[in-house]
């Protein structure tokens, strides 16, 4: 909802938008229509998405982010699903997924201040 509002007009005091598991499409119905309004968002956007997210298939989400250019940063969480549940046996990183989310968000938001 915030991204829709930001696509219509600048939001006072909002320097960037963070999407935790952006719901690009319903499960089993791959599509990118839900992201069309993002083209009109003028502030930086951070997408935090699991590599197994059934609501944001990577072959659709990655091109959406590329199209947004420098305004979009996509961070993929290895083996995480839409609720950030991970496959511990095959996950490459030993970092807890929520620690990773917090770290990436902190690093990204610090860049907004400079």
Structure summary:
With 114 residues, this protein is of the alpha/beta class. The chain is 31% helix and 14% strand.
Q: How many discrete structural domains?
A: 1
Order of helices and strands: HEEHEH
Rg from Cα: 14 Å
Query: Which runs of at least 5 residues are low in confidence (pLDDT < 50)?
Result: none
End-to-end distance: 27 Å
Strand content: 5-15%
Helix content: 25-40%
Sheet with most strands:
3 strands, parallel
Shape assignment:
globular
Q: Structural class of the helix and strand makeup?
A: alpha/beta
Order of strands across the biggest sheet? 1-2-3
**Which whole number gives the mean pLDDT?**
93
Tally of separate helices: 3
Please explain how this structure is put together.
It is a single chain. The mean pLDDT is 93. Strand 2, helix 2 and strand 3 (72-77) form a beta-alpha-beta unit. The longest helix has 17 residues, at 97-113. Strands 1-2-3 form a 3-stranded parallel beta sheet, sandwiched between helices. The chain has 3 helices and 3 strands; from the N terminus they run H-E-E-H-E-H. The protein has 114 residues and is α/β, with parallel strands linked by helices. The chain has one domain. The chain has helices spanning 2-8, 58-68, 97-113, and strands at 17-20, 45-50, 72-77. It is globular and about 45 Å long.
């Amino acid at each position: 909802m915030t991204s829709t509002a930001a696509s219509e007009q600048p939001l006072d005091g909002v320097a960037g938008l963070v999407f935790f598991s952006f719901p690009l499409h319903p499960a089993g119905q791959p599509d990118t229509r839900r992201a069309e309004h993002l083209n009109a968002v003028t502030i930086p956007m951070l997408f935090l998405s699991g590599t197994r997210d059934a609501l944001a298939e990577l072959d659709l989400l990655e091109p959406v982010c590329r199209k947004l250019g420098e305004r979009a940063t996509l961070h993929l969480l290895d083996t995480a699903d839409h609720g950030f549940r991970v496959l511990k046996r095959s996950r490459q990183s030993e970092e807890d997924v929520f620690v990773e989310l917090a770290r990436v968000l902190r690093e990204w938001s610090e860049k907004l201040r400079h």
